[in-house]
Structures are given as C-alpha cells and as structure tokens.
Amino acid sequence: MKIQAISLRGYRNHEETDVTFKPHINLITGPNGSGKTNLIDAIHYLCMTRSFVTNSDQYVAHNDHKYFMIHGWFKGSIRSEFKISCSYSRGEGKKFFVNDSPVERFSDLIGMVPVVVLSPQDLKLTSEGPVERRTFLDSMISQISSTYLRNLIDYRKIRRQKNTLLQEFNGPMNSLRAHLEPWNVQLAQKGAAIIQKRGEVLDKFKDYLAYQYHTITGLNLKPSLQYQTICRECSDFDEIHTEYTRLLEINFEKEAEREQTLIGPHRDEVIFYLDDMELRNYGSQGQHRLFSMALKMAQLFYYSDELEDLPIMLLDDVFGNLDQQKTDIITETLNKHAGQTFITSASERPFEKKQFSGNGENTWLTVNNGKIATKY
C-alpha cells in the first residue's frame, strides 16, 4: 500500500500543506519542532483514526484553530486508488470519509492501509507496564484481522456492562450471580477467541523478533517472549473457553467484592527476555531501545508476509541515538524492503544524496515552520 499525496489544513503546525510522496523512501529532515513528525502523524491518523503523538484530538488542531482537515490519496497492489479524509471540529468531534462517503464505524478503516510506526515512544513497550504491551499486541493484530478487532470491541463493551452491574447491584449474592451469567457467557466466548488469536500470532511473531534483533544488533543474545494468560496452552478454543468459564465461576465472590471483572484477556501480559533475563527488570537503556526497534521491524516483515499488500513504515526520529553501523543496517534493510517508508530526522548526517538524487522511487523533503520543500 502506498500514499501518493496528502493535504493538511490546520493540522498542528501545518496550516496549509500539500505534498506528493514517492513510492519507496521518503526522507523528511528539518529542525526540531518544524513539523516533520506532524506530517507522518497525519498519515498515521488516516490509517489508524488517531494520532501516535497525542491521545487528545483537540491538541491536533493548529494553534488556536478549532478544526483540522486531512485528505490522503492511496493506492495498493490489490485495492485501486482511493481517498481517505478526516475532518475534526471542537464540539462535533471527528468524521472520516472514504472517497467522500462517510464512514459509520471508524473500526472499518483499521487494516485498510496497514501501517507500522517506530518512534522514541516505543521504549514504553519494554520498560513500562503490561498495558503498553497489550495495546501494541491489540493494534498489531487488529490490522490483520477484522474479526479480532470486532471481538476486542465487543469484549470491552461487555466488560464495561458487567462492571457497571457489579458496581450498582444491590441485592443478594445468588441474585447477582444470576444477573451476571449472561455477561459471563459472552465474556468467555469473546475472550477465548481473543486469547486464541493472540497466542497464534505471538507463536509466529517470535521468530520475526529473533531474526530482526540479531540483524540489528549482531549480538548472540537470544530474544524471546512469553504470553501469560488464563491458561498455558492457547491453541484450542474449546479448552480456553472451558478454563475461562471455570475461572469466572470460582472468582465470582472476589469480583463481587472488588466490583470489577478480574478474569480475562484485559489482564494478559507479554514478557520479553534476552536469554534468561527479563528485559523490563534488568535490561539496560540501550537494550530496551534495540529491542523495541526489533519489535517494530519484526512487525513490518510479519505484515509483509501475512498481508496481501505491503504496509507503510513510519520512522520518527529514531537514528539520533544509534551508532553509524546500526543506522546503516536499518536503512539498508528498508532499502531492500519493497514497501513505502517515511523517515524523519533532525540531522542529515546518516543519509547520502546519491540515494535520492535522480531516483524516481525516493525523495528527500525538508520542513521548516510547517513549509515543505523538495531537496532531491
């Protein structure tokens, strides 16, 4: 999948920006705060219906503006040319359109244009709590499986409704148990499907992770991951469902006491290791950085094998803390990958003119105060 062009109106510091992209490497350089990240963030916004920089849409609007508009023109090897648009105004929220037709469910856009983003924020994946890793896992799988995304949305809705019942119910325990039963039935069905799919994906993904870590670092340390959920084996749906139902039953009183759902994939964990060392607790800052980079590069190549169309890769200011050797390895890997890549960098040092000058597949853009110019 490729994005051919984008148009921004009032998007962060891009008051009025129109730019055409090349199908392979799009390098974007400029001073910090000039609008490099905002440009690729707008691509992510169209692909994933949200920013990867901020959790609040209101902070995406330019300065004191109360609105923003994004148009993106895409083309894939399977899907013909199409346009995705997003409009946002404070008070009304955001709206998405495909070829100018309104999108009723934002979730329908997820996976239409698969995207992988690698940024300094990815250190959270290995250094912070399980929420970060579950979010990464859910986002990754949702782009390759609409069924998984629908199960995830349904599960969250059911869990919220069950929690509301636990918090507001005022009556005997036997009556509460009866009221909870239909919610538990649905939770076990949706939750077991989520756990099964997570286990299936992680079983494949771990090989991609090991390969990319070794490629980037050249070290003999062996990266691995462990999926912790309600059961040890995650391949058989019926076994997961049976165990899930059993655990819901035996934890009834505990859930009633705490007034929240305690069993399910919303409490899963993915633990990362280097050899036998748990990375979160014992890894150095450098090891965290390289591991998180390997995770995202593994995601890129996992998508490339699993999907009919190649994903778009976004790298935001990731070369500043890398030595030249590792920078060369990553850029060479991206050069060999057939998909479209966007790289932002405050420094021009790691990049060579010959890669862009006279190359119809690549382009070097510069950004200054939200203004775009073509260097090569």
- CATH-defined architecture of the largest domain: Up-down Bundle
Number of domains: 2
Class by SSE composition: alpha/beta
CATH topology name of the largest domain: Glutathione S-transferase Yfyf (Class Pi), Chain A, domain 2
Put simply, the count of helices is 10
Silhouette: globular
Order of helices and strands: EEEHEEEEEHHHHEHHEEHHEHEEE
Distance between the termini: 23 Å
Arrangement of strands in the largest sheet: 2-1-4-5-6-7
Look at the structure and give the mean pLDDT: 94
> What is the level 1 CATH name of the largest domain?
Mainly Alpha
In short:
With 376 residues, the protein is an alpha/beta fold. The chain is built from ten helices and 15 strands.
Q: Can you describe this structure?
A:
The chain is α/β, with parallel strands linked by helices and 376 residues long. Helix content is 42%, strand content 23%. The chain has helices at residues 36-48, 123-127, 130-142, 146-168, 173-217, 237-250, 252-258, 279-282, 285-306, 324-336, and strands at 2-11, 14-20, 25-29, 67-75, 82-89, 93-98, 101-102, 115-118, 223-228, 269-274, 277-278, 312-316, 341-345, 363-368, 371-374. Strand 5 (82-89) and strand 6 (93-98) form a beta hairpin. Helix 4 (146-168) runs antiparallel to helix 5 (173-217) and helix 5 crosses helix 6 (237-250). The longest helix is centred in the middle third of the chain and has 45 residues, at 173-217. It is globular, with a radius of gyration of 22 Å.
